[in-house]
Amino acid sequence: MSPSLMHTETCTDRAKTILSLILFFLSSSFLSFTVLVSYGHVIYILWFYHVWMIMSSAGP
C-alpha cells in the first residue's frame, strides 16, 4: 500500500466525519425549527397576552 493511498483514505474518513457532523447539525436544527414553527405562535400569543395584561393594568 503506497503512502498516497493511505493519505487518500484518511481524507475520506475525515470527509465522512465532517459530513456526518453536518448532517447531525442539520437534522437537529431542522427539528428545533419544526418545534419553533409548531409552538412558536403559541408562545408568541402567550407573550403578547402577558404584555397586554401588564399594559392594561398599568394604564388608567
Looking at this protein, list some descriptive labels:
60 residues, mainly alpha, 1 helix, 93% helix, rod-shaped, membrane, transmembrane, transmembrane helix
What does the secondary structure layout of this molecule look like, with pairings?
Blueprint: H1 3-58
Q: Describe the sheet with the most strands.
A: none
Structure class: mainly alpha
Query: Unreliable stretches, pLDDT < 50, 5 or more residues?
Result: none
Counting DSSP E segments of at least 2 residues, the number of strands comes to 0
Number of domains: 1
Overall 3D shape = rod-shaped
Taken in chain order, the helices and strands follow as H
Q: Figure out the total of helices.
A: 1
Average pLDDT score: 84
**Proportion of beta-strand residues:** under 5%
Radius of gyration: 25 Å
Alpha-carbon distance between the termini? 85 Å
Report helical residue fraction: over 70%
Keywords: Membrane, Transmembrane, Transmembrane helix
Transmembrane segments: 21-47
Characterise this structure.
The chain crosses the membrane at residues 21-47. Keywords: Membrane, Transmembrane, Transmembrane helix. The protein has one domain. The chain has one helix at 3-58. It has 60 residues and is mainly α. 0% of the residues are buried.
Question: Care to give the gist of this entry?
Answer:
The chain is mainly alpha-helical and 60 residues long. The protein is 93% helix and 0% strand.
